[in-house]
Amino acid sequence: SRYPSKRWGPRRHSSPTSVGFPVYSLTGLDVLRLAGNRLAALPPAVCRLSGLSALNLSRNRLTAVPETIGALTHLVHLDLSDNMLTALPEALDGLATLTRLEVAGNPMSPRVPPPPAFAPVTLGRSSQFGAVVRGLTTSDLGGKDAMDSMFGDIASLPELTGDERTEAEDLAIAIVRAGDPRAALALGDADCARAVPALLDMATSTANTAYVRLLAARGLLKLGHGTGRATVIAILRDSTAYQHDRCDAIRVLAAHPDGETEAVLEQAAADADPEVRSCAASALSRSSDQ
Q1: What is the DSSP string of 167-208?
Q2: Is the pTM value of this prediction over 0.90?
């Protein structure tokens, strides 16, 4: 093996900011696998494991990688695939040993700059407009609190009116077209039919992660577009998709039931993945109780 020596991976069900074991005590570690743990941010202790030669952070929900990763001076292989990264840290340029970097499945398109009318101050505009623009253009997405704040700001979009509403929708659609799904739900809530083409492209592109496609599909569902449901069902039935995305698909279907939902959930309740089976069974039970 190229990477002999010590290897560790987290417990199956870690919290979004925990890797399930005392990383700081593993100073002799050379391979660390944290794939598929719904991490929203990289625990700082990981960047203190200076002996690492391989680090797998794929299939998480990372929106940024800290510059402190530059301390991993022995890193040869870094897997960042299937996250929510829009940019890479400059510190990677200083890792002379890094020969394999994987970033597929991230919305790496350049961030759309705010139009001149929005930048940099929304003087004379409503506070809600300012909040929406802040949420759409912020690059501070380093953790759960920042993500919650961003989505909370963008959620005010449907409350805007007149020119503010039009301008905010234009910016939101442009950001979706650039591969950033943060505005998908708000565009659906705003009943913005103009967003359908951009959301369709995002939901149906197999180059996007299941998480990104699911956000776009939820926007389409809110707009009453059938492709939204078809995309959610496709993600649920994809046995290669990570289980938390498939379970999220179950929750979306349960929240938007139609005549086909029960049959789809019954099929999922017999899935080979026990977590998917459990999620589907719970959704069916809640449905029968209503």
Answers
A1: HHHHHHHHHHHTT-GGGHHHHHHTT-GGGHHHHHHHHH-TTS
A2: no
23: Cβ contacts below 8 Å, ≥ 6 apart: 32, 43, 45, 46, 49
The full length of the chain comes to 290
Amino acid code (one letter) for 12: R
Residue 159 to residue 177: CA distance in whole angstroms: 23
174 with 183: CB under 8 angstroms? no
Whether the CB-CB separation of 232 and 253 falls below 8 Å is answered with yes
Give the whole-angstrom CA distance, residue 146 versus residue 240. Answer: 30
Secondary element (H or E) of residue 33:
strand 31-33
- Write the single-letter amino acid at 130: G
Give tens-digit pLDDT for 96-133: 888 888 887 777 644 444 444 444 345 678 889 989 98
